[in-house]
Amino acid sequence: MTAFRYSRSVHLAGALVLVGAVATGCGGGKTGSGGSDKTTGVTITVALATEPPPQASIDAFTKSTGITVKWTNTDWDSLQTKIAAAATAKTYFADATDVDWSRVGQLGKLNWFYPMENYLDTKALAAEMPQLTSFSSNGHVVGIPYDASFLVTTVNKKLFTKAGISTMPTTIDEYTADLKQIKSKNVAQYPLNIPFAAAEGLSTYWYQTTAAFGGTILDGSGKPQFATPDSPGYRAAQWMVDAIKQGLVPPGNINVADSQGQQTLMAKGVVASTFADYSGNVGSLYSVPASSTVVDQVAYLSTPGVGGAGPNMSNPDGIGIPRQAKYPAAAAKFIDWFTSAQNQADFAGASGPDKVMPGYFLPSRLAGMAELTQKGKLIGGQQLADLLKNSAKPVFPEGAPSWYPEFSKSVYTSLHAAATGSMSVDDAIHAMAGTANKLSS
Amino acid sequence: MTVGTHSGRRHDVPPAGTAAPGRAGPRRRFDLLPYALVTPLTLFIVALALVPAGVTIVQSFFRVDELDPPTRFTGLDNFRQLFADGAVRSSLVNTGLYVVIGVLLSTVLGIVMAVTLQRPFRGRSILIAVLILPWALPGVVEGLVWTGIWDANIGLLNSVLTSTHLISHYQVFLGQHRFLTILAIELVQVWQMTPLSTLLILASLQNIPSELYEAAVLDGCTPWQALRRITLPLARPGIAIAMVQAVIATLNVFDQPYVLNGSADTGASLTMQTYFISFQNLDFGEGYALSLLITVATLILSLGVVKLVYRQVEF
Fold it and tell me: Does A106 touch chain B (CB under 8 A)?
């Protein structure tokens, strides 16, 4: 009987401990805004959709600053959900996290992130980071670009040459004619890669094509600039849909996303060109024997525009400090270190494989890009550096609107529907313009 | 031995130690332990299910838009906007198709597989272990795996069909035609759900006494008649539970259509719309309203299935 009583007491105590634990769990974890200014002896959480830098580099940062870094790698979609959920609930989530160029307007309006000019000399940074303008909203810098990403045309020179094309196209008309020649000579059954899956990559492809046709998407007040048939945006959409209808694009591409098309079509020599490709793909994907069958065949091409080379649309990744950060000042020190020219060059491979950050290819600082190019560690480095400095432009010169995600969804679902034939190009443009008009009014 | 299926209550003998009616039994001391043991679970349920459910119900009648503050009461506006939204209406049709195809297929396949596994045979336990694997995989992983099968440019299915000359050129399975897209996506979910349906039905079948089948054989019953007259009626509790879990899973399908077909209208589900409305548009009020509608639909359909299929079985 004693044993029985003992057992019941233990169970009761255990149950009470559980109750306490549950109550603590439910009530704990709330952290308001206005974090600590401490910059030593603290641990910060960095949440990004990428692998961390090498542990040795992070250890060196910890040794020099006293700031320990806990890195969380979360996929991009989940990360955006976590950022929104945590900010809405005013709950701590991370000290530094992703600021995507497309969310800048939303984040700026909602005041979910600290203005970076409070912590860093953003005016000085602007001269060094051409894409910093993509992170400005309402006069504040919401995040700092940590890589340079812009859209650029890539061509498989071997396939072009095989089709008898010796001079690379400089205009969109020449480019289209060359693609048709490649198809007609049976060099590639489907020479062009356009990712028509209903996803963000389709929107950015259209933005880049619209820029090549000499236009913009929205004006400063968010009104659509692509509604009439003679507008560059309309013509760009028509050109893309015609390309799949005329057999220049694989029919299966209506369900192929951007990176998927680059990996399974462009890198395998199935298609001859991607009009809006990722900057850095030639070195990081097409020239890597493990992932490519077209090594040394693919090169960057200045964007074929209406009357010559067109611009390249920026879509860089940035890092910022959420309002609920526990240690914003320490996070700012980390961002300063993480985006320094030397570290960026090291992460991209300028100082050997030990300092490489997986998946990191292009520094956002011109100095980082220059070092990488000088050391010959970046294929097409000089061309990319020139494009970054002179040709890379923000998709929305006035800053992405706060309602960008809803607009983008309308763009990619409508263009996808036009590609499948369930909607005409005119109806698709009408739906996209209607969304922009509704959201901007 | 009595066997039967009915929905009435069983009249049990009072448990030992319980006073019979009309007699005063020994007065029992208040026991804290049972309450203490259920309290953690109760707190979990209250904190993680009932409170959020309550908040969802209340907030669905408010405009909770991060880009359009402040939060304010708007009555049924969120619901009106949902029904006026073409994307939501399209997703409603898609989700209805997911539910019909998914519940029917997973239940039929679950019954077939459970009946196959009912009798012991060599390697049965290994087969059951292998069977569970798709259920254990995350939906996103399954979507990625099946992308390689359905892909219209380099997919396995196209490769097999062309090499066996069943088709002359590669076909587009996803994104082109709505019904084909939904069927292809739902097959992936059925592949995931069926193992659990099988196990639930198999558990019911294991309770059926073998004497019943022996008696049926003596009475001249064929295997098909045994299936119809003994197996299926007595497996109804398991079938009902399997169908309810299939209803819940298909009504809330997200990973498979999102990974396989992106945000396209041809396959978008209601839960995907909830995500877009809440976390892309930051219109949480409308998101709450849609979540509430999905919850109500889940409850109604689940209760309907229970009412229609479930019968209490006694041996």
Answer: yes
Contacts of B174 in chain A (CB under 8 A): 255
pLDDT score of A22: 44
Q: What is the pTM of this model?
A: 0.86
Q: Please determine, for residue A12, whether its predicted confidence score (pLDDT) is greater than 70.
A: no
B263 interface with A at CB cutoff 8 Å: yes
- Interchain proximity B262–A11, CB inside 8 Å: no
CB contact under 8 A, B175 and A251: no
pLDDT by residue (tens digit) across A98-157? 999 999 999 989 999 999 999 999 999 999 999 998 998 888 999 999 999 899 999 999
Average pLDDT over residues A272-286: 93
Q: Which stretch of A20-34, A45-59, A400-414, B161-175 has the lowest confidence by average pLDDT?
A: A20-34
Residue B179 contacts A where some CB pair is shorter than 8 Å: no
Q: What is the pLDDT of residue B11?
A: 44
**A109 interaction partners in chain B (CB closer than 8 Å):** 67
Print the SS3 string covering chain A. CHHHHHHHHHHHHHHHHHHHHHHHHHHCCCCCCCCCCCCCCEEEEEEECCCCCCHHHHHHHHHHHCEEEEEEECCHHHHHHHHHHHHHCCCCCCCEEEEEHHHHHHHHHHCCECCHHHCCCHHHHHHHCHHHHHHEECCEECCEECCCCEEEEEEEHHHHHHCCCCCCCCEHHHHHHHHHHHHHCCCCCCCEECCCCCCHHHHHHHHHHHHHCCCCCECCCCCECCCCCCCHHHHHHHHHHHHHHCCCCCHHHHHCCHHHHHHHHHCCCCCCEEEEEECCHHHHHHCCCCCCCCCCCEEEECCEECCCECCEEECCEEEECECCCCCHHHHHHHHHHHCCHHHHHHHCCCCCHHHCCCCCCCCCCHHHHHHHHHCCCCCCHHHHHHHHHHHEEECCCCCCCCCHHHHHHHHHHHHHHHHHCCCCHHHHHHHHHHHHHHHHC
The minimum CA-CA distance between B264 and chain A, rounded to whole Å, is: 5
Nearest CA in chain B to A190: B153
pLDDT band at A389 (very low <50, low <70, confident <90, very high): confident
